[in-house]
Amino acid sequence: MIAKNSRRELRLSSHDDDLLVEAASLVGMSVSEFMLSRAVHDAEAIVAEHHAIRLDKEAYQRFLEALDQSTSAIPELAMQVRKSRQLKSAN
Questions:
Q1: Which of 1, 12, 34, 72 is the Cys-Cys partner for 24 at CB 3.0 to 4.6 Å?
Q2: For residue 31, what are the contacts with CB-CB under 8 A and spacing of at least 6?
Q3: Which domain holds residue 60?
Q4: What's the predicted TM-score (pTM) here?
Q5: Is residue 23 part of a domain?
């Protein structure tokens, strides 16, 4: 079992709280388990959607052709890639 060492708190209306309690009880989970499972599921879907590139057949072919073209490095783009990697490694 993974240790749970982080905590999140949120404020919600009594209507939303009642709805969460009812939904959790209908699936046999505690409210915390229900909220966490739904939030993680949605977060995984959102992250996957933003990490994927979907192209139709024609766009995919153009993409492959562009990758095959010989180009020189763009200094500004290389700098942004380095910054992005530094930010990711800092988190």
A1: 34
A2: 20, 21, 24
A3: 14-69
A4: 0.59
A5: yes
DSSP string, 9-56: -----HHHHHHHHHHHHHTT--HHHHHHHHHHHHHHHHHHHHH-----
- pLDDT digit string, tens, across residues 10-20: 999 999 999 99
In a domain, 43, yes or no: yes
User: What is the domain count for the chain?
Assistant: 1
- One-letter amino acid at 81 equals V
Residue 2 covered by a domain: no
Note the pLDDT tens digit of each residue in 39-84.
999 999 999 999 998 999 999 999 999 888 877 888 898 899 999 9
